[in-house]
Amino acid sequence: MTEASLLAPVADAPPPPFAGRGERLGFAGFVRDADSMHVIRAAFGPAFPTGLHLQQLSFAETIAFLSRIDTPETILIDISGEEQPLSAVHQLEAVVDPGTRVLIIGEQRSVSLYRSLTRTLGVREYLCKPLDPGLVASELLPWATGAAPLVEPARGGTMVAVCGVAGGVGATTIATSLSWLIGGESRRHTILLDADLHRGTAALAANVPPSTGLRNALEAPDRIDPLLIERAAHPSAGRLHVLAAEEPLTETWEHHFGGGRALAAALRQRYNFVIADIPARPFGFAAEILSLAQQRIIVTTTAPHNLTRVRRWLDLAPGGMQTQPPLVVINRYQRRRGASPARLATALGVKSVLVIPDRGAAIARAADLGEPAVGRKGRFRSAFLDLAAHVGGGAIAGGA
Description:
The structure is a single chain. The protein is an alpha/beta fold. It has 2 domains: 3-144, Response regulator (Rossmann fold, 3-Layer(aba) Sandwich); 158-390, P-loop containing nucleotide triphosphate hydrolases (Rossmann fold, 3-Layer(aba) Sandwich), CATH 3.40.50. It has helices spanning 3-6, 34-44, 59-66, 85-92, 111-120, 133-144, 171-185, 201-205, 214-219, 226-232, 259-270, 285-292, 304-314, 341-348, 360-369, 379-390; strands at 27-31, 54-56, 74-78, 101-106, 125-128, 158-164, 190-194, 234-237, 240-243, 273-278, 295-300, 327-333, 354-357. A hairpin with a 2-residue loop joins β8 and β9. The longest helix is centred in the middle third of the chain and has 15 residues, at 171-185. It is globular.
């Protein structure tokens, strides 16, 4: 197979010239499987109208080819199938020219691997398969085009992602109660954002109507500003607002990449706290919001199958703005029936966990009365006071 055929662009048109660097290309990608090829082609294609250099090759074939050419300015390498991924990346040192920006995709979900690649070996970004189109567009595409992903400034409100490991573990209840405690009772400007644009469960839990403007805002990211958000969000209690959509389940809606980033920036300008309710399977808009959060709360129950899923969430690569490890919250905890919090933390491989006691009946009664269960003194409220303190919500007037 010749070099020309290996670097044949996806488009029929010839590739653009790369003046000033001899024969060195601006970008070339080498991917092992067809599914990843499809995702990358769809995300990168519009940015390379005259030709995208993307080929389906194994890692060994990629190494052999790179050894025969001037390394492109940015390369995308697939290390799937390599038993020793760090050793595989070390092999690139012998065939990659200095100054080349390296992007890696693979199949291992490991925070330690991510940190080793990006902090020790100089890899610009690592994404795990199966590839999410939103993350490919927001985290890889800017590097491929010669730029760098935009990083939100540190100033502004705090975004907290509340993630349920599975449906029904109570993540929406956690997000709603935490939002009410910080925004409704302590009166710090807070917004509850439902990242599931089809179900609107956060709006239902907060007893407000879903927004009709959220989808329109995301379809025109360049128009998103704090004023538009304030008009689209609904007031709930005190200084708490809710932003949730309820798009028809039968209607296909295409997420515009970058909309989540623009929305997050506007929300953080307007509110002290953004509490995002993330679905158990975050794709598209939800995945983009998750990658922008400064703090992740992983919600589970003590059911064995749910505890197993916690490890997968802990292994997710941290977002660019994430400043501390995820916090694991055990919901509906029953002290007499379950293991102690210390034993649960040890089993999950974390320093500690926070438990929310099982108060199903009290929550149901409070919902019937139209009032938050977290507003009543007791162990349930005390647990949420601890949770608010963990995310920076500060002391709540009235205490436990």
